[in-house]
Task: structure prediction
Amino acid sequence: MNLSVIIPIFNVEKYVEKCVNSLLNNDLKINEYEIIIVDDGSKDNSLFIVNELAKQHSNIKIISQKNKGLGGARNTGINNSIGEYLLFLDSDDWYLPNTLKNCITIANKHNLEILEFAAQGIAPNGKIVFNSINTTKERILTGVAYYNSIRYLNSACNKLYKRSFLVNNNLLFLEKIYIEDFEFNTRVFYCAKRVMATDFLVAQFLQSENSITRNNDFSKKEKVINDFIQIIQITNDLYKNPTVFIDESSKLFFQERLSFLVTTLFFQLLKYKTTYSYKNKIKKQIKQTELLYIDYIIYEKNKDLFRKLIIKNFFLFRLLQPFYNIIY
Result:
């Protein structure tokens, strides 16, 4: 079995058939790959749709569980997979035709632990929102060296992972938490020794509206905020762990990751239209626990400008206050 593709589903009856068919109509033979669909407590027709597909295709494996979130569903997939390599595919996304065999060929040729491939963001009307593409030109790097030199996506869904690498290093996702991809890949890239990027276009990701941002229920937004703080703490604990060897390249890796997390946290607070006093409370909270990483350059230029201009001059948040409605 060359490949296991893990698809969590939760109330995705509009999308899941297209997602699964993009695998079934690809270029691997049925005995070369398995599709592991993890139903995370769907209440619509998602489970019925995939059960109908499974009746026709023997390489589809369906596992139902009580809701554990995206990370928990992916962990169930990892623990039940047998493929040499793993792909994580969200149920509203899809792969382009004749792409999977080439990914496996590249990974096998170079004995890779991670292969990162090109992806596009697609709006509901079919318009291309973004292109993410890069390459190491067949140069193999450690995960830290790779991250410090190659800019790609923080997603887990544009990467082919070697299953034995994840299992041997106990690399699983945090469960019931937002931005689990970013936290997962921090540990993954820190452990990895053989990483490569290809400019081969494989996946398209549906870019739907951000329901959390638009939703007026602040409890959901507060969960995102608390999850950010938790992940900053977890990442910092790994960075400061006295048993973990940290050289100069690793310092740069962790400092950029932490700075990105802190900056994105305050960017979300701005998007959520929180009050200045609430932002200041969060700032004091993470500063007291020595988590206010705002002195390190971020590779993403817009976020880095936000860090330097707004966060480091925090009073500017107050000046921005009249320009948006307060919902908290």
The chain is about 45% helix and 15% strand. The CA atoms of residues 36 and 187 lie 24 Å apart. The longest helix spans residues 248-271.
